[in-house]
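Audit log entry. Action: structure prediction of a protein-small molecule complex. Ligand: nicotinamide-adenine-dinucleotide. The ligand was supplied as SMILES and no pocket hint was given, so placement is left entirely to the predictor. Protonation state taken as written. Sequence taken verbatim from the request; no trimming, no tag removal. Recorded inputs:
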Amino acid sequence: MADLNGKVAIVTGASGGIGRAVALRLAQDGADVACFGQNRERLQETADAIAALGRRASVHPVDSRDPDAISASVGQVEKDAGRIDVLVNNAGITKDGLLIRMSVADWEDVLAVNLRSVFLFTKAAARAMMKQRSGSIVNVASIIGLIGNPGQSNYAASKAGIIGFTKSIAKELASRNVRANAIAPGFITTRMTDKLDGELQKKMLELIPLARYGSPEDVAATASFLAGADSTYITGQVIQVCGGMVM
Ligand SMILES: NC(=O)c1ccc[n+]([C@@H]2O[C@H](COP(=O)([O-])OP(=O)(O)OC[C@H]3O[C@@H](n4cnc5c(N)ncnc54)[C@H](O)[C@@H]3O)[C@@H](O)[C@H]2O)c1
């Protein structure tokens, strides 16, 4: 269990499956958490659960596609809390379709929510981390960014982009003791995967050596490890949380 006492964390997509589990895990480990996402009510539920753990939580219903809103509200977190120690870029969407039928709008939406927002949030939070000479950025990619998937060229490109981005900023920020790593989850049971048809879900299970789907808590445990002091010599890495599905 990481000791995150006194740390301030930002988690994007904190109303959803993995993001909510990450926000709660960081709070359990001692952090105060700024919860970013789309839906104010669901973010408030996450914040209430964090408050019940005795930690401070704030709610920021900000569209991950909106550069000005991201910059302003991350700045507000820094002003209110006095620091930013951890940023978990987790918000993401899928708009699947075969290449021939994929619209420009679906391509751009997925790239904007999944990849451009990682740039925007990281840029907004990095200044505080550089000033402090410490910080940990954790970007949620996907094994699809490593191996590709038919019907997910936009999603795969966004997740592969996150990995390249993570390695670049890891090199840029290392001299200020700011680390950046990516997590590549496999099949994690959330609303995102509930949308997949039953036959496909069964086929995926056969590909997982550990013979179970992952839980949001499996990803949250890795995020907490990467956020905390047990990983201070780890930067620029991609950690696969996929039950051995990709080796
Ligand atoms: N579930 C899986 O199997 C799996 C596998 C690999 C990677 N991932 C990644 O994990 C992350 C979380 O996914 P999840 O499975 O919890 O899905 P989810 O749909 O439960 O959560 C997605 C979150 O992103 C937020 N979001 C979406 N669009 C947004 C926007 N425009 N502005 C602000 N917030 C927005 C949603 O509000 C939600 O909180 C995503 O980046 C996803 O690609 C998931």
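Audit: result stored. The chain has one domain: 8-188+216-238. Residues 13, 15-19, 37-39, 63-65, 90-93, 113, 140, 142, 185, 187-188, 190-193 surround nicotinamide-adenine-dinucleotide (CB under 6 Å).
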